[in-house]
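Dear support,

I submitted the protein below through the web form. The confirmation email said the job was done, but the results page showed an empty box. After a refresh the structure appeared. I'm attaching both so you can tell me whether what I see now is the final result or a partial one.
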Amino acid sequence: MRTENPSHLRRVDSPIGRLEIVGNGTAITALSIERNGHLPWEHLPESSDAILDAAAAQLEEYFDGHRRDFDLPISLAGTAFQLAVWEQLVDLEWGEVVSYGELGRGTGRETAGRAVGGAVGANPIPIIVPCHRVLGSGGVITGYSGGNGIPTKSWLLDHEGITHRVPVSAHTASATAQQPTLEVFAGERSSEEPAA
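What the results page shows now:
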């Protein structure tokens, strides 16, 4: 829960909607993707710094297809389990995917699918900490907490050339996305494949 206004804030346009980057003067602490036309700190004026300016430039390069990884200082705050999951996400390369089960095994909690999904969904710095690269078994998108959900995640995966499948219920919503999905899958989420 937010308790104080961010010290540094920058907004940028992107193909998936406006992005809001927040920093503390030494690192990026949050990145939000516009949801239903709104951003968390939209009521505040921008107050950028060199780190957020670099983030804006690198995000533009990423969306233009000229950048495959980010070289930015980040500061992640969460539980020990969340940090263990997010550290694995940081190590993912462009076009590489991981499953919820693999993330669980990486934390030593192989059967913690729901907890892994919760940690992935709580990632405060999406795109830069690439939680969009987490898929359910068989390459199925089980959810996404950023932007407009599954259509946003599908766009990011398409952008990176990652084959994936979306549930039929999300296919209708993805019709409004800027790029079509690659496949449609009418699957049900299992207890080990939570929304993220």
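Response: this is the final, complete result; the empty box was a page-load delay. The longest helix spans residues 50-63.
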